[in-house]
Amino acid sequence: MNAFLVKALSIIQENNSCNKEDTMKKILFFCLIVACFFGCTKRIGDLTVATTKNLNLESMVIDYNKASKNCEGGDCKIVILGIPIGYPNMEEALDKAMAKCDGNLMTDIALYKTEWSIILFGGNCIRVKGTSLNTREKVGK
Q1: Residue whose C-alpha is closest to residue 137's, from 83, 41, 57, 21
Q2: Between the CA of residue 86 and those of 38, 77, 94, 112, what are the distances in Å?
Q3: What are the distances in angstroms from CA 26 to CA 1, 2, 32, 118?
Q4: What angle do CA 11, 17, 21 make, to 5 degrees?
Q5: Helix, strand, or coil here: 118?
Q6: Per-residue pLDDT reduced to its tens digit, 97-120
Q7: CB-based burial of residue 11 (10 Å sphere; 0-12 exposed, 13-18 middle, 19+ buried)?
């Protein structure tokens, strides 16, 4: 926002000797161009443990030796003319993250939601980031 104000002020100073109406038109045009491009990412939550697989943890052992930190996955849907074409799904994002790191369980998960727009087109995304783990059957049940 500070860069925006600096640019607007520099336009006013450059055109100080010009017609003030022309200067205001340029500032308004600049503001409209900036308003057409925006994006926002916010952290929407944290999870300690999550999986989308059916696991019986009583008969399984978590293999911490094969842990993959900073596994990331996401699910995005497009928006056209302000109308979303579907909604991003946290389960899909979690599945993609676990598949990327070859795991079936995730811990220390951070959830992020991103929204962006360029004039009439945009997108909504959900991204998960965490540590991917594998489970295996207990030996000698």
Answers
A1: 57
A2: 20, 6, 17, 18
A3: 18, 18, 10, 21
A4: 65
A5: strand
A6: 999 988 888 989 999 999 988 878
A7: middle
pTM of the model: 0.68
The residues, any chain, with a CB within 8 Å of residue 68's CB and separated by 6 or more, are 101, 102, 103, 131, 132, 133
Give the sheet arrangement for strand 60-80, strand by strand.
37-50, 105-118, 121-137, 60-80, 83-84
Tens digit of pLDDT for each residue in 13-61? 665 555 677 777 888 887 777 777 778 889 888 888 888 887 777 777 7
d(CA 52, CA 63): 18
Q: Left, alpha or beta for 104 (phi > 0: left; psi -120 to 50: alpha)?
A: alpha
Sign of the alpha-carbon dihedral angle for 90, 91, 94, 100: negative
* Chain center to CA of 132: 19
Asked if residues 97 and 128 have their Cβ atoms less than 8 Å apart, the reply is yes
Tokens for 41, please give them.
Answer: 């990412």
C-alpha distances in Å from residue 65, one per residue of 29, 55, 61, 126, 135: 57, 19, 12, 28, 11
